[in-house]
Amino acid sequence: MDLLWLPLTFFLSFILAQTWSVHTSWENRDANRHNEFDKPTSQPHIIFILVDDHGFRDVGYHGSEIKTPTLDRLAAQGVKLENYYVQPLCSPSRSQLMTGRYQIHTGLQHSIIRATQPNCLPLENVTLPQKLKQAGYSTHMVGKWHLGFYKRGCLPTQRGFDTFFGSLLGSGDYYSHYKCEGPGMCGYDLYEGEEAAWEQDRGLYSTVMFTRKAISILARHNPRKQPLFLYLAYQAVHSPLQVPTRYLERYKGIPNLHRRKYAAMVSCLDEAIHNLTLALKRYGYYDNTVIVYSSDNGGQPLAGGSNWPLRGSKATYWEGGIRAVGFVHSPLLLNKGTKCRSLVHVTDWFPTLVTLGEGTLDEDLNLDGYDVWEAISEGRPSPRQDILHNIDPIYIKAKNGSWKAGYGIWNTAIQAALRVGHWKLLTGVPGYSDWVPPQTFSNQRLTNRWHNENVRWDRGKSIWLFNITADPYERVDLSQRYPHIVKKMLLRLAQYNKTAVPVRYPAKDLRSNPQYNGGVWGPWYKDERQKQEEEERYNNWLTNHLGKRRWKKTKNRKLKRKVER
Q1: Nearest in space to 461 (alpha carbons), one of 488, 489, 427, 432
Q2: Is residue 257 part of a domain?
């Protein structure tokens, strides 16, 4: 009998061994899957902080009286961008950040996108969040859009962002989130996705509100599972000058009220970024994160901002309007604690961040930006050698501008600006051209001292040439001394202009009035498909309505005949 049981015992042992082996194999496989799931993504998280109207001087490390300990520390531990350029206004800088293309190639050469215009960042342009999304990123936007919203396809969630919380317009009240574009043209401007954020609105100061929203996004996302792109576009420090009272206490020593409020707004912003960086560390992002900080244009002295010692202000093509505060902070940088003096432009972020995020750059994107990561991280030479600041064929206010003044190559009445190597050329009317020293803000009111350095000798001119490396403050015009340089640069302008697309700057559309949209600024324009769908709904309603009316008339006639009989 024992002999008979032996094969059976052996057989059962074999089955159990195999079962255990299979079970162990599945456990190992599950463990491997779990490890793969927990394995940190190789793609860095990207936090892009865009600040509004932050003046070149208005950061501690540029010698300001405004205290910015967080920005100073992040910049000191990262790489300061000390030859970094943006555009002189909100929409132009944002459009170039989102597309990596100059304004002349998107049709947004003139001014900004206004709330009442049927205009937005052209839909045929691929955006930075769309490319990062293709690369596997979770994409989120918090803050100011200002790239148009006249139809649904223009909204951030239609342009590559998974989520959006913020404002669509260029400015508004920091607490109520209302904005007026003129008498009888007022509306609410705070959105969650594609709907007004009435329920999320607690009347919070926007800098605080946007920071809390950004932190909540970090808290909900798993940094080990998927790379994250967060575009945090603060409303601050754009006018109106509003700030919680406790921040004003720090600047009692600044007599000028505009400057005092502005300084307090910058301090609030600095504290907000401190809280954001703490959250990046708390939720496990920091060690694999790249933080980019940038202003969208120069400061506005009339609203408390300072670009000293640079010339000019926001909305001008002088250095004070386009040379920006900027830095990159990241544990992934190779050369930390350095300054990058290579030429960097806002269009460069598109190819730089897409490449950093292991995305693809197709040739048909026709980018004007360059991948400048090695220039920033390793201190290598920048691939960028020139910048087309802009060509605005609508802005032709230079009374003495002419083809003759441009040597028959260029009409100098046209507002244009170009940088090539050390040289910078301006034509037309570049904008407000004073230098505004810090002592300007020493009086309560802006007196005649405001114009102490008003440039009288510029009257009648329509062309300027500066060596920006030798003369970063644009005090010595060299256009008469080096006409051959002027001619070469005018030829370059003409070449760029041949590639320009027509300007998109439509007239005001009265249908944009929030009164027609429930008191909210939002899409009002309907494309052909939407129009067709609405017409079909109306026709169906009309057919049904008329059918019911005919039925009632027939019924009434029959009843009338019965009564008559």
Answers
A1: 427
A2: yes
Q: Is 160 left (phi over 0), alpha (psi -120 to 50) or beta?
A: left
SS (H, E, C) 36-80: HHHCCCCCCEEEEEEECCCCCCCCHHHCCCCCCHHHHHHHHHCEE
Q: Are 270 and 237 in contact (CB under 8 A)?
A: no
Q: Which of 146, 177, 258, 389 is catalytic?
A: 146
With respect to residue 564, please indicate whether it lies within any of the assigned structural domains. no
From the centroid of its chain, how far is CA 204? 22
Its sign, for the CA torsion 138, 142, 145, 151, is positive
- Spatial separation of the C-alpha atoms in residues 564 and 166, rounded to whole Å: 69
What's the predicted TM-score (pTM) here? 0.87
The answer to whether the peptide bond before residue 502 is cis (omega within 30 degrees of 0) is: no
Say which of 90, 120, 154, 340 is annotated catalytic.
90
Give the count of domains, the chain. 1
- 270 within 8 A of 67, measured Cβ to Cβ: yes
Instruction: Examine the residue annotation and report whether 110 is marked as an active-site residue of this protein.
Output: no
How is 281-332 classified by DSSP, letter by letter?
Answer: HHTT-GGGEEEEEEESS---GGGT---TTSB--TTSSSHHHHB--EEEE-TT
Count the helix, strand and coil residues of the chain and give each as a percent rounded to the nearest 5: 40, 15, 45
- Let me know if 139 is exposed, middle or buried by CB neighbors in 10 A (0-12, 13-18, 19+): buried
| CA 331 to chain CA mean position, Å | 24
Query: The CATH number of the domain where 247 resides is what?
Result: 3.40.720.10
Is 430 within a domain?
Answer: no
Q: What is the DSSP letter of 507?
A: P
Q: Kindly report, residue by residue over 165-197, the tens digit of the pLDDT.
A: 999 999 999 999 999 999 999 999 999 999 999
Is 154 designated active site?
Answer: no
Instruction: Show the tokens assigned to 339.
Output: 């300054």
Q: Which amino acid is at 143?
A: G
Choose among 465, 469, 485, 459: nearest CA to 477.
Answer: 465
Question: Per-residue pLDDT tens for 368-415?
Answer: 999 999 999 999 999 999 999 999 999 999 999 999 999 999 999 999
pLDDT band for position 439 (50/70/90)? confident
Distance CA 358, CA 44 (A): 9
Inter-residue contact 214 to 205 (CB < 8 Å)? no
Torsions phi, psi for 226 (to 5 deg): -150, 140
The β-bridge partners of 388 are: 418
Q: Tokens in use for 20? A: 């255990």
- Position 240 in a domain: yes
- The residue assigned the tokens 């531990």 is 77
Range of the domain at 107: 45-385
Q: Which residues fall within 8 angstroms of residue 325, CB to CB, at 6 or more apart?
A: 51, 54, 55, 56, 58, 59, 62, 293, 294, 295
**How many helices (H) and strands (E) in the chain?**
12, 18
Rounded Cα distance between 322 and 346, Å, is 10
